[in-house]
Amino acid sequence: MLRITVTSVYVDDQQKAQDFYTGVLGFTTKHDIPLGEARWLTVVSPAAPDGVELLLEPAGHPASQAFKAALFEDGIPFTMFGVDDVQAEFERLSAAGVRFVTDPTPAGPVTIAVFDDTCGNLIQIAS
Q1: Starting from the edge strand earliest in sequence, which strands make up the sheet with 53-58, in order?
Q2: Cα distances (angstroms) measured from residue 124 to each of 34, 43, 66, 67, 114
Q3: Helix or strand or coil: residue 55?
Q4: CB–CB of 120/48 below 8 Å?
Q5: How is the chain split into domains, by residue range?
Q6: Cα 3 to Cα 6, 65, 83, 126, distances in angstroms
Q7: In angstroms, rounded to a whole number, what is the distance separating the alpha carbons of residues 6 and 52?
Q8: Are 80 and 124 in contact (CB under 8 A)?
Q9: What are the percentages of helix, strand and coil residues in the chain, rounded to 5?
Q10: What pLDDT, on a 0 to 100 scale, did the predictor assign at position 14?
Q11: Could you tell me the pLDDT band of residue 60, with boundaries at 50, 70 and 90?
Q12: What class, spelled out in words, does domain 6-126 have in CATH?
């Protein structure tokens, strides 16, 4: 049976991304392994330290740069994180200086909001 163990988000700067994803969003670093100029750098939810890892992957390849830029320009989130309460998370992250491009909005059976991760991506949260 297949299972998801790692998924990626392309970032412009791995250290900036680590600082944002851990210091602001609240994830914890799982792996930080030097690999030449880049690192195998993953973060996890403190609620699931052995769960799915998010790889903060360098966006060095021209195709990843173009893909990331097109999604951002078109306002399309790169990925989505689940939260218990979008409004509460919106307020917590806004107070921490996170710039939201979409305020909490009902979308059928869920509520969503979208923020800028400061690393070239829009990220959607949903509950």
Answers
A1: 6-11, 53-58, 38-44, 28-35
A2: 29, 17, 20, 17, 4
A3: strand
A4: no
A5: 6-126
A6: 9, 27, 21, 22
A7: 5
A8: yes
A9: 25, 40, 35
A10: 97
A11: confident
A12: alpha beta
- Tokens representing 63 are 């195709």
* Residue whose structure tokens are 């200086």: 97
2 is written with which tokens? 């297949």
SS3 of 121, please?
coil
| Contact between residue 32 and residue 44 where contact means Cβ atoms under 8 Å apart | no
Strand order in the sheet with 79-82: 79-82, 122-126, 110-116, 100-107
Global pTM? 0.92
Nearest CA to 78 out of 86, 65, 68 is that of 68
Alpha-carbon span 30 to 27, nearest angstrom: 9
